[in-house]
Structures are given as structure tokens and as C-alpha cells.
């Protein structure tokens, strides 16, 4: 259980985004839960629903069934499956370990709900490596933070105050750290209000960072990019070269356009160039804590992140071929096993395959649904933060009526016939 402040109040770690803020105070009165201190709007909204699950029974084709029967049916369906896909993976370390064990045993493909987005940076790291940093290092050493796009703030609403803890809302000049936002005019008006900002759309990030890099290398000083003046690029370059430790922050979900991987490459190349003379680093912001968590577990167990295919027994990594949206077009999938927990409303692409959903709430298109608790809310969980350096032990705040995702997956694994190896 989280640390009790008083009878109904707890100091807790919030599991609802990859920042895993460890300073929130939660109040629990019977089924009503609210965040009393330090919760953002996302935390307020998610905590308010934890005592009121939309679905608290197992369902088969919309008819309630008991838990034992549901596990038995799930096991039979998975036993017969010749082409299982385990998807979603909005789970904790224990859930990821159990799902990977099942994937290996059933020669399944395992993929995350946001796997395609995450693969851009992973591919870059596989090709050329990269320089990355931690939240603590940014808080203690960075003197310039450049944030690309709105997604880091939308995905992790307290990211600005986490990176600049001196100020609840950092502006561009607090004396120690300067904060610069690069975004569309709408981002700059709404998300980055009051920050020093430069206008640039995600499709233009690559051109902008290439222009800065060429100036840092003294190779070219006129760019004529059109969307931003040469004077503004000079100003941005001067800030970066003057800083002792500039940090670049982005979220891969802002790069979902054709050649988005090249834009990510350009940002990484700028960081590499800066490191010739000083320290500079990137921070890639994930939305759900499940994303770094599942990739950490997959990497430590199989040497590769998700998506992973065990179809040929050896784990193989083909992110384009095994993205979640691909399952709706494929005939070589007979069962989709959705592993949720941290998701609010599971969104499973339409598919001709049967869907078994293990989640906190029932997707509309599932044939079989088994409810589970939310990691870090209804049961203790280990989750990795967005900077991937620490697995936080997130203690539950209220007991669950339902098992964890790991427990359900382990029950299925234990009931599979030995010849399913
Ligand atoms: S920023 Fe994320 S971890 Fe922090 S309180 Fe909000 S939802 Fe929770």
C-alpha cells in the first residue's frame, strides 16, 4: 500500500504517464478517489474513475461468465491458435514478463499499442547510437532546454515543472536555465504560452536542426528556409552554442509523417555535433509508462525491444511489419490477445481475428473480456520512467476486485497443455 498520511490520504506515485510523479497525495473515500496535491488534469481524471470500473465481470460475446470459466475459454482459444498476436501491452514489468513468456511458448507476435511510433528512435539508436540524459541530470545540470512540439506536454502534463523544478511554470529566463519551445503557432499560443518560442511544424524540425548544425560547424550561415528567418536561426544557434549543457526534448508521436525518421536523425546529429565540444543530450518522452517498461523487459530477456515475433522461434524485430494497425489488414492472425491495464478505453483495430481482452475496461469489439486491476493502483507494480533509468515500485492504493494482468496471463500459461511448448 502507498504511504498513509492519514486514514484516507496517501502519498503515492502516479502511474498514468511515463513521468511517474512521486509527489502526489491521493484521497480515497469508499469508491471516490481524488488527487489532493500535485496531480495534473490527467491524474485528476484517471484517479476519479479508479473505484468505478465500467465493467467488473468477465464477458463472452456480451454475456457475463465467471472468472474460472473465462480463463478456461481463453486457454482453449489460445491453445488452438496457430497465429497468435499479443497486442496493447499497457502493463507493468510482471505483466510484460508473463506476456513475453506466453508469446515465446505460442510462437506469437508481441506488439505495443504505440510500437510503430517508438520504433523511429529505436531504429536510429540501432544504426548510429545516441546521447541521452535523465530527468535528474536535466534538473541539476542543464542550462538550456529546447522542446520540440506539443506532444511532450500533452503526453506528460507536468513535464515543464519536472524539468525546471525551480518554477511551477518555467519561462524563458529564470537565471539558471533557459527554456525554448519550437512548435506551430497553435502550440506556442496554447501549450507553450509565455515561453520563448520559435515557429516550426514537425515536418520542418529536420530542416531547422540541420541549419543549426551547419552553423555550429561553421559550414553555412544562409539557409533561406522560408518558415523561419535566418536571423531567428542565428539567435537559436547562439543560444545553443553559448549554453554549457543544452538538452533537446521530443516525443516520437510528433514525428508520424513521411520521413519523420530523417527529422529524428537530424536532431540526433545536432546533438552529436554539439558533443564534440561540450555535453549535450536528448530526452525522448513516452506517453504511457508501459512503453519504456515493456521495451526494457523485452531487451533484457531477448536483446531486442518490441515488436517481437517468435514465429520462427528465434525472436525477430521488424517494426514496420508488426505494427498494431497492420493487424486489421492481415489474414495471418487468428487470435488477438489484448493486454491492457493502464489504458482507459482500449482501442483495438478492427480485425477478422477473435479478440480476447484482458483490461480494465471492455473494448467494444472483444469476443472474450477478462477484467484486471490497474498496475500501481489496484496492485503493486514496477514501471520504468520515460528516461528509462529507474524502475519505480508503484504501490497500490486500493485493493482490487480483480487479478493483475500478470496473474491472468500466468493462469492461462499454467493451463496450457505441455505440447503447447
Ligand atoms: S504528469 Fe503524469 S505522472 Fe505526473 S501527475 Fe500527471 S499523469 Fe501523473
Describe, in plain words, how this protein is organized in 3D.
By secondary structure, this protein is an alpha/beta fold. The protein has helices spanning 41-47, 67-80, 93-105, 115-128, 135-141, 151-155, 159-163, 185-190, 205-216, 230-242, 260-274, 290-302, 405-415, and strands at 3-6, 9-12, 24-29, 32-37, 58-60, 63-65, 84-88, 109-110, 144-148, 178-183, 196-199, 246-250, 281-284, 308-309, 335-339, 354-359, 368-371, 381-384, 391-394. The protein has three domains: 3-47, no CATH class; 58-114 and 289-420, 3-Layer(aba) Sandwich (Rossmann fold), CATH 3.40.50.740; 118-284, Dimethylsulfoxide Reductase, domain 2. 32% of the residues lie in helices and 19% in strands. The strands form four sheets. An eight-stranded mixed β-sheet has the order 6-5-17-16-15-7-8-14, covered by helices on one side. α8 (185-190) links the parallel β10 and β11 (196-199). The model has no long low-confidence stretch (mean pLDDT 89). Iron/sulfur cluster binds at residues 14, 16-17, 19-21, 24, 39-40, 42-43, 156-158.
Which helices and strands appear, and what pairs or packs with what?
Elements: E1 3-6, E2 9-12, E3 24-29, E4 32-37, H1 41-47, E5 58-60, E6 63-65, H2 67-80, E7 84-88, H3 93-105, E8 109-110, H4 115-128, H5 135-141, E9 144-148, H6 151-155, H7 159-163, E10 178-183, H8 185-190, E11 196-199, H9 205-216, H10 230-242, E12 246-250, H11 260-274, E13 281-284, H12 290-302, E14 308-309, E15 335-339, E16 354-359, E17 368-371, E18 381-384, E19 391-394, H13 405-415
Parallel strand pairs: 7-8, 7-15, 9-10, 9-12, 10-11, 12-13, 15-16, 16-17
Antiparallel strand pairs: 1-2, 2-3, 3-4, 5-6, 5-17, 8-14, 18-19
Helix pairs in contact: 2-13, 3-12, 3-13, 4-11, 9-10, 9-11
Iron/sulfur cluster binds at residues 14, 16-17, 19-21, 24, 39-40, 42-43, 156-158.
